[in-house]
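Reopening: DUF3102 domain-containing protein still failing for me.
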Amino acid sequence: MENAGRRDITSQAEETSAVELSHNLTTVTTEIKAYQSIGGQAIFEIGRRLKWVKENDLAHGEYMKWLKESVNMNPTTAQRFVKIASELPNRYSSTDLGWKALYEIATMPPEERDNPQQLDSGETKKPDEMTVRELRETKRKLAAAYSENMANQTLLTQADKKAQKLQDQVTKLQRDPEIKQV
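Support: Ran it again with your exact input. Result attached.
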């Protein structure tokens, strides 16, 4: 007997891409296991299916149990696969990058994912050419640069406010000069 809290997925299925996913949890589970055995596109297909199951099939709180018991997948890994499938364009699906490298790229700022980056070694590489270690190093450097930029923006805003306050005082003094008699 099926769980009473489980939603009827056939009435709520939504197409998540050009290819419609099965409405049968057993079929989706089998597909995920099959995709786990191959690389490249598999990471995207697993992530896509995990996202679909989480959004369309299981009652609240059942997803984690299903991950462990039916798919034998760590929830953190599942979350990362979903992030990869959601964030990265399809061109990454044909690469020979592992899921850890793909996850590091998926969690980079979108505007930096295709830009060449200078590594501590002096070498310049695009993210899809980097190792996981190099990607993490690059992300740390980008985060530090972002933090520094935000701090500089804050200082600039404060300086602009002070300058405006001083300009307002100068304008007021020019309009209303006080003449003191000695």
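The first strand starts at residue 117 and ends at 118. If you still see a failure, please send the error message rather than a screenshot.
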